[in-house]
Backbone:
């Protein structure tokens, strides 16, 4: 067999494994043996996705879940072959389905992102010890330093509350704000947040040379004068709380 013929056989065989209904197996291959590969390929991918997205797996009936995995196998062209990136690819797949008006639960793509980020942060190769900072610094009076392992998140749906008996059919009036972070002990945790928290983190990130208090005063300038003192006080407490959770690592070194 010449190399081009062999490559064509590989393409046909792979197409069959991805979508057996649309692509018959290459001729002259025993179906019993091909069936072993069909089953292994599907079961391995299904098991990996079920582990990455346990809430989605639990919410969907077996037939719907298997159909979703099959559609992902058949129709999605991944950007990377890495196993650790399959969860990201599945989230992109669900986003595209939502954009095209699928009948998936309306919160499904956001829930997939929420479930994926825990793995993403846990395997992020960034290291806190590589970021110059004083861990004992005053994050209000000094220049706060953000952790590269802290991700602010905003969702239309309260994804952290979705479960068997709570599956909203429409987004609530207020969005959901969360932060996922990996601390110095390599523990990953989610924490509740609000719009002010995310605005404060954005202000710190956009102004790396300004003190925490400077950032708070800049935010307070956008509210009514009577509310500014309360906002600065609440923001200072928030910075200290984020410092305790390793979202803010400490202060910049001189």
Residues:
């Amino acid at each position: 067999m010449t190399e081009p013929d062999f490559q064509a056989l590989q393409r046909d065989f792979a197409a069959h494994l991805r979508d057996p209904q649309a692509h018959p197996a290459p001729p002259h291959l025993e179906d019993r043996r091909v069936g072993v590969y069909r089953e292994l390929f599907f079961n391995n991918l299904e098991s990996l996705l079920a582990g990455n997205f346990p809430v989605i797996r639990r919410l969907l009936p077996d037939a719907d879940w298997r159909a979703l995995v099959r559609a992902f196998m058949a129709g999605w062209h991944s950007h990377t072959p890495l196993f650790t990136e399959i969860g990201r690819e599945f989230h992109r797949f669900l986003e595209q389905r939502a954009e095209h008006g699928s009948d998936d639960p309306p919160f499904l793509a956001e829930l997939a992102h929420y479930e994926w980020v825990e793995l993403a942060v846990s395997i992020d190769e960034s290291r806190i010890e590589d970021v110059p900072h004083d861990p004992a610094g005053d994050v209000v009076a000094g220049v706060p330093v953000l952790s590269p392992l802290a991700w602010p998140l905003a969702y239309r749906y309260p994804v952290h509350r979705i479960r068997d008996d709570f599956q909203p059919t429409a987004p609530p009036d207020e969005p959901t704000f969360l932060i996922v972070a990996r601390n110095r002990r390599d523990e990953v945790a989610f924490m509740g947040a609000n719009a002010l928290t995310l605005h404060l983190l954005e202000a710190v990130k956009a102004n790396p040379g300004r003190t925490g208090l400077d950032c708070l005063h800049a935010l307070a300038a956008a509210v009514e004068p009577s509310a500014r003192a309360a906002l600065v006080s609440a923001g200072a407490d928030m910075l200290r709380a984020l410092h305790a959770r390793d979202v803010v690592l400490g202060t910049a070194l001189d």
